[in-house]
């Protein structure tokens, strides 16, 4: 995977996305007696995306070979990237059950624990979550998700 | 005269305690965003956009506009003192500003930058007050064909933001358009391309897309690198020497002109403004060899130009509803979010809003001058807040921001997904600016195109049969031909590099 052409993968994804939109656009009116329909622009624009991606793929094969190894970080950088993404995914998954206050504290704690001593991380995480919960919930009127106990 | 009276009324509204507070908050956050490397004004505004949901439109836009022009001031501080531009438009200031700081003249560099920024910013806002109303009145003649041609012209001028590769730039722009097609068709109301997801009925929200592509992707990229802390030099003496006043003032005047002119052109950006100003100063200098070694004109000109740019960039937004850069596109998103339609009718339907925001920008520039002249040292210390502490906080505020758009977790997921998309696109040198601009304009482009074709008896020829529309299309074709020619001749300017501003 590391040595694979990253541009080619991106081109492939964009091409599939363009094709899906293009095919789906046929299920909408292209033209009606009142003028162009809701399938008119999507067909042209997705067609353009397919064409452009096709040229990009050719370029990736012939000229511009960029591997995943060249663009993705290694070692500490890669771990940090994975930590950010997995902690965000975890945050989204647990927040409906734990509520913002607990889930937010956990998210911050996970992201800060390698940088500071655990008790500092915990204090910053809990403090920030409480402030944000109050600021958004009470001051700005955004009802943040809460748990069974109401926080 | 009528404009002046309305401007005075605008001051009356802008000078109320609440609006002053929001203006102060906006420029302070703008300074913070500008000072902190790893967070640009586009990302900063996008992240804070949801906070303004519950606010009235006037204070909300006063605050967001404050972030926009405040960031231009903030970026200077770190460029001069620690050779690290807080935002892209201040990159050029590092060259001579940091040299001045090394010679113990960091205070002077910051002083002249603040004065230049104030003059450039104020002149540009005055331009908005003077040019805005007649331009808006002229644009009132526009009906769908003219609007479509104008937007196509705007998109064509985006060629300047397309980065090193035209193919990647156009692909990004088309991808933005495709994404804007998801959800309800603006003319017939048909639901399209939702893939069975109820959450996509209204399409992707602009805030989510902007926060993901700019905010989250920036966090992911900055998170990979560990930034080292530097020692800040002491700041002494804020004003230039006797003999330096004249060249500095001339540079400031030239920078104002360059920034203002470039602000009017969709597709230009603050970085181009400061670069053009720097090269103009170097060319006009009696002794160009001083540049790069601490020439005061190398700070005064570019810093003035990027502030004049940010004021003038609001003219196409207020009068034509056209965003000229991603940051302005976020502001456009904010207008729409608050139920305002940017464009010619704005001056007629919401004059109190328009003039209050314009008046607040004068006040904001004055606040920034006060904040920068004596307090530059304090701001520089803010830049030293470690990124390892900062990014988790930005991340959680972004998550709440995304959630607050529709009060659903789905949007946080969508924001992270757009963050990953933005990260990959950036890594493969795809410019994000065209994608965001076409995304924000997508629905307007489709509705004006379809409405034009509905009223047309000769199909696409309608765009060439009406004088204004034909002129706009003519300019568009000229730019297209010129761009293709320059690509063929491999003369794409170095200025065309992709920058997130």
Word description of this protein:
- The complex is a heterodimer of chains A (151) and B (501).
- With 151 residues, chain A is an all-alpha fold.
- Helix content of chain A is 71%, strand content 3%.
- Chain A folds into 2 domains: 6-71; 75-139, no CATH class.
- Chain B is built from 21 helices and 2 strands.
- In chain B, a hairpin with a 6-residue loop joins β1 (183-184) and β2.
- In chain B, α2 (17-35) packs across α16 (351-382) and α4 (57-82) packs antiparallel against α6 (106-139).
- Chain B is globular, with a radius of gyration of 22 Å.
- Chains A and B meet through α1, β2, α2, α4 and α5 of A and α8, α9, α17, α18 and α19 of B.
The count of β-strands of chain B is 2
What gyration radius of chain A follows from the Cα positions, in whole Å?
24 Å
Distance between the termini of chain B: 35 Å
Q: Quickly give the structural class of chain A.
A: mainly alpha
Q: What is the terminal separation of chain A in angstroms?
A: 44 Å
- Using a beta-carbon cutoff below 8 angstroms, give the protein chain pair with the largest interface and the number of residues from each chain: A-B, 63 and 53 residues
Order of helices and strands of chain B: HHHHHHHHEEHHHHHHHHHHHHH
List its salient traits.
heterodimer, A: 151 residues, mainly alpha, 2 domains, two-stranded antiparallel ribbon, 5 helices, 2 strands, B: 501 residues, two-stranded antiparallel sheet, disordered C terminus
How would you summarize the topology of this molecule?
The complex is a heterodimer of chains A (151) and B (501).
Chain A: H1 6-25, E1 31-32, E2 35-36, H2 40-62, H3 68-71, H4 75-112, H5 118-139
Antiparallel strand pairs in A: 1-2
Helix pairs in contact in A: 1-2, 4-5
Chain B: H1 2-14, H2 17-35, H3 41-48, H4 57-82, H5 91-102, H6 106-139, H7 144-157, H8 166-181, E1 183-184, E2 191-192, H9 206-224, H10 245-264, H11 270-284, H12 297-312, H13 314-320, H14 326-337, H15 346-349, H16 351-382, H17 387-406, H18 410-427, H19 433-455, H20 462-465, H21 467-488
Antiparallel strand pairs in B: 1-2
């Amino acid at each position: 995977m590391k040595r694979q052409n990253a541009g080619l993968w991106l081109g492939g994804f964009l091409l599939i996305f363009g094709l899906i939109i293009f095919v789906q656009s046929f299920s909408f009116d292209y033209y009606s007696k009142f003028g162009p329909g809701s399938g008119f622009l999507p067909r042209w624009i997705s067609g353009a995306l397919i064409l452009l991606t096709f040229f990009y793929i050719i370029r990736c094969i012939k000229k511009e070979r960029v591997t995943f190894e060249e663009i993705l970080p290694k070692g500490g950088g890669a771990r940090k990237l994975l930590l950010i993404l997995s902690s965000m995914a975890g945050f989204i998954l647990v927040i409906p059950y734990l509520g913002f206050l607990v889930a937010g504290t956990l998210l911050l704690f996970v992201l800060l624990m390698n940088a500071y001593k655990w008790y500092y991380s915990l204090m910053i995480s809990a403090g920030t979550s409480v402030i944000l919960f109050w600021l958004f919930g009470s001051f700005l009127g955004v009802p943040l998700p809460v748990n069974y106990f109401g926080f | 005269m009528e404009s002046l009276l309305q401007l005075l009324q605008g001051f009356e509204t802008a000078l109320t305690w609440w609006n002053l507070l929001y203006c102060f908050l906006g420029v302070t956050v703008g300074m913070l965003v500008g000072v902190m490397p790893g967070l640009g004004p586009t990302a900063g505004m996008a992240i804070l956009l949801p906070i303004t949901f519950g606010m009235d439109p006037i204070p909300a836009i006063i605050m967001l506009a404050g972030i926009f022009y405040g960031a231009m001031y903030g970026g200077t501080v770190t460029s001069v003192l620690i050779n690290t531009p807080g935002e892209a438009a201040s990159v050029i200031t590092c060259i001579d500003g940091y040299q001045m700081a090394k010679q113990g003249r960091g205070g002077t560099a910051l002083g002249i930058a603040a004065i230049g920024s104030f003059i450039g910013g104020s002149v540009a806002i005055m331009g908005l007050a003077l040019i805005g109303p007649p331009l808006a009145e002229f644009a009132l003649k526009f009906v769908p064909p003219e609007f479509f041609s104008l937007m196509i012209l705007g998109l064509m001028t985006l060629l300047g933001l397309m980065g090193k590769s035209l193919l990647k730039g156009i692909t990004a722009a088309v991808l933005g358009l495709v994404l804007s097609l998801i959800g309800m068709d603006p003319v017939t109301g048909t639901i399209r391309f939702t893939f069975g997801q109820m959450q996509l009925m209204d399409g992707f929200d602009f805030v989510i897309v902007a926060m993901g592509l700019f905010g989250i992707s920036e966090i992911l990229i900055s998170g990979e690198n560990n930034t080292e802390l530097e020692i800040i030099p002491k700041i002494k003496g804020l004003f230039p020497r006797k003999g330096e006043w004249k060249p500095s003032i001339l540079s400031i005047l030239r920078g104002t002109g360059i920034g203002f002119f470039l602000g009017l052109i969709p597709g230009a950006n603050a970085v181009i403004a400061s670069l053009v100003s720097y090269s103009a100063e170097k060319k006009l200098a009696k002794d160009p060899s001083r540049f790069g070694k601490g020439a005061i004109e190398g700070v005064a000109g570019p810093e003035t130009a990027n502030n004049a740019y940010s004021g003038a960039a609001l003219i196409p937004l207020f009068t034509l509803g056209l965003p000229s850069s991603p940051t302005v596109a976020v502001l456009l998103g904010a207008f729409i979010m608050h139920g305002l339609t940017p464009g010619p009718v704005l001056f007629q339907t919401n004059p109190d809003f328009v003039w209050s925001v314009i008046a607040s920008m004068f006040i904001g520039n004055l606040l920034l001058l006060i904040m920068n002249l004596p307090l530059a040292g304090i701001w520089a210390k803010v830049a030293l807040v470690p990124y390892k502490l900062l990014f988790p906080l930005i991340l959680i505020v972004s998550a709440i921001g995304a959630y607050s758009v529709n009060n659903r977790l789905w949007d946080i997921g969508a924001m992270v997904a757009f963050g990953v998309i933005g990260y990959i696109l950036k890594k493969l040198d795809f410019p994000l600016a065209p994608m965001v601009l076409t995304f924000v304009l997508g629905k307007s482009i489709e509705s004006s195109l379809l409405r034009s074709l509905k009223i047309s008896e000769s199909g696409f020829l309608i765009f060439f049969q009406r004088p204004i529309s034909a002129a706009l299309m003519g300019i568009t074709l000229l730019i297209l031909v010129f761009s293709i020619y320059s690509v063929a001749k491999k003369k794409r300017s170095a200025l065309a590099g992709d920058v997130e501003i």
